[in-house]
Amino acid sequence: MAKLPQLLQRKIYKTGQTRGADDDVIYQNRVNRNSTVLIPLSLFTKYGNPPQGEEDFDNGSIVLLTPEEYFTDEDITDKLESMGLEIGVNALVFYQKRVDWMQFPPLESWQIPTSRTAPLGGEYVARIAGTTAQENGDPIRLGYTETGLKGAGIRLYEYSSRETIALCRSQLELLYWLCFDSLEAAEEFAMLKEEAESRREECKKKAESKELSNYELMKKQRMVNEEGFTICPLCMEPLSARGFYARMAQAEGREVHDLTVTEVNLFHINEVKYGDYNHKPYNLGWGHHHCNVVVKDSGIEETLDWMAEVLKRNKKLEE
């Protein structure tokens, strides 16, 4: 199969990765969505199961307890055991607040973990922000800080299995080829005409064999329009394939030399959230960067309701 232009290939590949994270948080930075998932104990009984049809998370999970949850409950060990959990094996005490660090310090016998899979090799981890409001207010970052072991895992709602990630990438490539000018754009960015046509046909066949080309469903999910062209899920404008390669226009005087944001980005139709594993086929489209920013984590329907109210108020002002 002919290779996609590098920019497009990288964009599709990155859809299988999580959002960025820095050293101040416990999450891994830009890793695959099938990495170890982190589950707060308060949400474990309600949301701790993998997606329907899957026996377990690809790379396991770690349950996080607050120091207060662990140290103020005399029966915590028994409660954890009843849920199949054990501190240092598949659960950790997670320090985020300095007051907890002072009031409920780690036990002397406790260690920081050395693994993301059971047994974890330690009992606690800390990510406490620095403060100038008190003495010894330096940041506290313990556990999962080493170069080869940075971050304990990913946010639960970002999870997607390796198999599902592959299906999503196939469908997202199909949506690229369904842009009204996909062939022309591919040619502009280093593909020969014959290569582009061949890759498009092979992609369509693969999508069909994997049941990823149900156009009625894609239309219902705001991924394509009546003509079968790829659209932005929010504004529903047909997308130009050139937007996959073009960098965002920058405001005059505010230019950044290393801007990497393109005009077209990954778009979750139904937002990712606890209780739903929404990184899956028929829930991912391509959309304008600006439209994606407007929707944020609110979801399309809620955003449209808000926009309708904004328009209504502005109309009254004009009357």
UniProtKB/TrEMBL annotation:
Organism annotation: Idiomarina aquatica
Alphabetical UniProt keywords: Coiled coil, Endonuclease, Hydrolase, Nuclease
Single GO term (MF): endonuclease activity
Segments forming a coiled coil: 186-213
Protein name: Restriction endonuclease
